[in-house]
Design goal:
This protein is mainly alpha-helical. 62% of the residues lie in helices and 0% in strands. Helix 2 runs antiparallel to helix 3. The protein starts with a helix and ends in a 16-residue tail after the last helix.
Amino acid sequence: MEALRNLCEGRISKRKYCVRTIIAAIVFALFSILFYEISFLTTITYFLLIAYLVPNTIKRLHDIGYDWKLALLMVFPGLCLFLVVYLMLKRGNPEENLYGPVPAM
């Protein structure tokens, strides 16, 4: 449990979040195309994508001053997309906040 907590601590910049999210989406799209006939592998790939994005999303939420609980929206595909786009557009807090110092670019 401590390892998961360490994985989700701190803040992440908007730029780093965007790059990581776009790369993860491209990888997911490629796997979906390659394994479109095997829905089981596509489902596993989707859950791996979410498992990768959740810690980054929590860090990004910390950057704008929100708690981790909003990351629970990642479970629902429609809300997940809305949350990811919002986090890609929202500017982070320009000074240190409860979750740590301003992230480096």
